[in-house]
C-alpha cells in the first residue's frame, strides 16, 4: 500500500526528522522503541522496527501522536483518516466556542440625564442579548480636568446595571479615554420571595421599554 510503511522506506536515509508541523509517521519516527496504541493491536511497548512491521502487515500507518512521552506514543491507523478526524474535531471545537461580542457606549464627561438614560437603555438591551459592554468617557482638550466626573459617571452606570451586568474592569484612564468593562450576568431561573413570575416581569419590562421609546 502506497500510504503505509512500504512506500516510505527511503525516508530512513534522511539525516534527521523533517522540520514540519505534521506528526512524524512511519520511518520518520526516530525513537528506538514506542508505546503502541490503536485498534486491532496489542497495546504495549515495542521496538520501532516491530511496530513498523505490525503497521505494514495491517496496511496502515504508524503515527507518532505523543512525541514527548517516554517512550513516544504511536497509533496505527490510516494517516489520511487521522488528519480528517483531527480537522473535523478542530472544526467542531471552533463551532462550540462562544463568540464574544463587545458593544461600545461613549459618554462625554458632562453627559446630561436624557442622553445618559438613552444609553443606559441601549446597554441593557446589549447585555440581555449576551454581549459585553465597553463604556468609556472621552475627554476632549481641557475636559481631562473633569476626569473625576467621568469616573463617577462610569461607576453610576455600573451601579444602574447591577441587575444585568457584573464589572470585569473598574474605570481605567487610558490616554483620553476612561473605560469600564461589563459582562452580562447569567439570568437565574429560581424565583425569589416576593419576585414576580417571569412572564409578568418580562411584561413589565416590555411596558417600561415602550414608555421610554415613546418619550424619546
Structure explained in plain terms:
With 216 residues, the protein is α/β, with parallel strands linked by helices. It folds into two domains: 5-79, Roll (Ubiquitin-like (UB roll)), CATH 3.10.20.80; 102-188, 2-Layer Sandwich (Translation Initiation Factor IF3). Helix content is 35%, strand content 24%. The protein is built from five helices and eight strands; from the N terminus they run ββαββαβαβαββα. The protein has helices spanning 48-57, 79-96, 113-128, 147-160, 198-215, and strands spanning 33-37, 44-47, 61-66, 73-77, 102-107, 132-138, 165-174, 177-184. Strands 2-1-4-3 form a four-stranded mixed beta sheet. α3 (113-128) links the parallel β5 and β6. The model is unreliable at 6-20, 188-195 and 197-216 (pLDDT under 50).
